């Protein structure tokens, strides 16, 4: 396995861990009021359903990114997502606790589906058209998210730079996706190194974050 493929898989895992902190909260909240005997069932069945839907979404996203100009739209959405991740500090959704096994499973699947739309786009961008790489990254990282959700959330609280790492990785992916669009690639054909645009996206993200934060304070 080449270093390039390994780096893509690692990037997918890191992205999924950082972006799935709120998904871990959903699982914890949805199953909190269930009997202990039903909690594990709800987590396993709900997560299995969520994984299947994520893989289907991933397949659609990978195919969509081959359509002309879609990568430009995707890059804009990813850049906004990176900024929003920093602005909200990785905190998002509130979910009510369920009291029955089926309702908890339903809540986990639906909430994960809604919150995973942006995650899937980011991961599809990193995978760069390699569907199996994206799936492999998901398969490796999802069990970590589920069974280590509390650890992940505590780490993100203790080390805020992990959120920055995820946001910068998304911004870099947005820049790469933008350059890889046929129209933009044609405009920038004189640019010898596309990584310059990707790195510029990271600098722009940091600049925007500090500029808007300074205005608020």
TrEMBL record:
Subcellular location: Membrane
Taxonomy, superkingdom: Bacteria
Keyword vocabulary terms for this entry: Membrane, Transmembrane, Transmembrane helix
Membrane-related topology note: Multi-pass membrane protein
Pfam families: TerC
Entry-linked InterPro entries: Integral_membrane_TerC (IPR005496), Integral_membrane_YjbE (IPR022301)
Repeat as UniProt keyword: no
A single Gene Ontology CC term: membrane
NCBIfam families: R_switched_YjbE (TIGR03717)
Protein family: Belongs to the TerC family.
Protein name per UniProt: TerC family protein
Gene source species: Enterococcus avium
